[in-house]
Design brief:
single chain, alpha+beta, Metal Binding Protein, Guanine Nucleotide Exchange Factor, Chain A, 2 domains, 6-stranded antiparallel beta sheet, 3-stranded antiparallel beta sheet, 3 helices, about 30% helix
């Protein structure tokens, strides 16, 4: 008789555990959505995607460019090519040549990486949640070829309050003539 009484109790405990897990997952998703909305995360699919093998990318890129753009590496602060560039022009994806940022939206963030408050065309970049290194950030990739560009934070200047903190190794700058 005791055995039959424990069955409904086990079912109730299992049901309670399942409901608790579902509500925790819903809270986590809500938190992610709130963070994503705070930095205007987009969920675009890559359009006209360029897909190449690592070997093909290695033929096209320097070792540092490959590490940053294809393996999600990060270059050193204050020693990269464009962190202190004050020339007028456009920053393009080093992998596929898509225009990504304008010098008109570049600002000195004090971080040692080129920083922008907005992309040139929001359709050319895509944001992904990045949970590496025990923290949650928003990674920015080229929407055309998937190159890792850097991260976007919500501590930038007006008018967007965004800081697109990019790796110089993922960019090619062309000065306006």
């Amino acid at each position: 008789m005791g055995h039959h009484n424990s069955y409904p109790m086990k079912t109730l405990i299992n049901l309670t555990l399942i409901l608790t897990m579902l509500s925790m997952m819903a809270c986590a998703q809500k938190g992610n959505k709130e963070q994503a909305n705070s930095i205007k995360q987009n969920n675009k699919t890559m359009s006209d995607s360029i897909i190449k093998s690592d070997e093909d990318w290695k033929k096209q890129l320097t070792p540092e460019q490959f590490d940053v753009t294809r393996k999600k590496g990060t270059e050193r602060a204050f020693s990269n090519k464009y962190w202190d560039n004050h020339k007028q022009g456009t920053y393009y994806c080093i992998c596929c040549g898509k225009p990504l940022f304008s010098s008109k939206t570049k600002f000195d963030s004090g971080t040692g990486w080129p920083s922008f408050f907005a992309p040139l065309d929001s359709n050319n970049v895509k944001n992904n949640v990045d949970k590496t290194y025990g923290m949650e950030r928003v990674e920015v990739v080229c929407n055309h070829c998937g190159a890792h560009l850097g991260h976007v934070f919500d501590d930038g200047p007006e008018p967007t309050h965004l800081r697109y903190c990019m790796n110089s190794a993922s960019l090619d700058f062309k000065e306006e003539k």
